[in-house]
Amino acid sequence: MDNNAGSQDCLRTQDCTLSAPPHTHNLGLLRQGLMRTAQRRGTATAMATTVEDEVEAPEPGDGPRLGFVGAGMMATAMVNGIVASKVTEPDNVFVSAPHRSSLDRFAKLGVRTSDINLEVASGSDVVVVAVKPDVVPAVLREIAPHLRKDALVVSIAAGIPLAVLEQLAPGKRVVRVMPNTPCLVSEGATGFSMGSLATDEDRDTVHALMGAVGLAVEVKEALLDGLTGVSGSGPAYIYVLIEALADGGVRMGLPRAMAIRLAAQTVKGAAEMVLETGEHPAVLKDNVCSPGGLTIAAIESLEKNGFRSAAMQAVIAVASKSIEMRNAEEEKRTK
């Protein structure tokens, strides 16, 4: 009972190292962490490098400079959310990818783009490594010598542990982040873990960055695998649920478009009930189930067909795969 009470208190107060989705009145507060990062630059513009030819990035406007190496779906979601939340100006966001075709959607947002990763590395206060896990080692080896002295490296790659990231970017402050695609509409759910050199200021910066596009929670690195199973991959499970509910509606005669909208709004409304009331989901479920009624008959059908177990196993499957990837990377590091 105490555990449930603690969970409910966390939901009600949004404490427990959580950052709530932003609203207009607190966006200024969210910017402060990023602005402190920008202030570290001072007047220094020189970049330490180990190669003969320095890569010069074009100068953006004042404010925190956010770089994204990689232009996939997650980077797209984060950049869209950051621009929409006005955490920093679009021209302070810099995205790189090997193919220009991948950058077209970013250019439309007013952010700067390049097909040269080193330009992003040399011109950003916060560098988000947003490439696939198997590409992370090569990318970090490429950009590490060109990172600004005070740059913060943020990795959103699943399964690459902090120890490996810190080995690939020696002497740099690193944070692991696991966002999800609803960042695109400022409704993301993100977990992050601090590296050994990361500071309290870095914690504030990541809270500001990810809190601007949804909910952010700091966890121990060992918990990121489970968090990935719940929220990192979670939207996909919910899309399947929405599709299945809509299919049921179509089977019973509802137009497809109407069924999808009803199902999506139902999921959204139920989620808001959990977050706003602080009630345990079981309590809210019981409130809908009248004795001998329609909803309890539906719950019986869900239980008979393994709905609850299937959801739990999905989380476990993702977490197990993440652990497998992490162990493989750590094994490479020790060889």
UniProtKB/TrEMBL annotation:
Q: Where is the Pyrroline-5-carboxylate reductase dimerisation domain?
A: 221-325
- Top-level enzyme category: oxidoreductase
As for subcellular location, the record says: Cytoplasm
EC number(s) given by UniProt: 1.5.1.2
Quote the cellular component terms of the Gene Ontology held in the record: cytoplasm
Sequence ranges assigned to domain Pyrroline-5-carboxylate reductase catalytic N-terminal in this UniProt record: 65-159
- Keywords of this protein's UniProt record, alphabetized? Amino-acid biosynthesis, Cytoplasm, NADP, Oxidoreductase, Proline biosynthesis
Known catalytic reactions: L-proline + NADP(+) = (S)-1-pyrroline-5-carboxylate + NADPH + 2 H(+); L-proline + NAD(+) = (S)-1-pyrroline-5-carboxylate + NADH + 2 H(+)
Give one GO term, molecular function aspect.
pyrroline-5-carboxylate reductase activity
BP-aspect Gene Ontology terms: L-proline biosynthetic process
Pathway note: Amino-acid biosynthesis; L-proline biosynthesis; L-proline from L-glutamate 5-semialdehyde: step 1/1
Q: Give the matching InterPro entries.
A: 6-PGluconate_DH-like_C_sf, NAD(P)-bd_dom_sf, P5C_Rdtase_cat_N, P5CR-like_CS, P5CR_dimer, Pyrroline-COOH_reductase
Q: Which family does it belong to?
A: Belongs to the pyrroline-5-carboxylate reductase family.
Question: What PANTHER family does UniProt report for this protein, alphabetically?
Answer: PYRROLINE-5-CARBOXYLATE REDUCTASE, PYRROLINE-5-CARBOXYLATE REDUCTASE 3
Extract the HAMAP family matched here. P5C_reductase
This chain belongs to the protein called Pyrroline-5-carboxylate reductase
Q: Which organism is it from?
A: Ectocarpus siliculosus
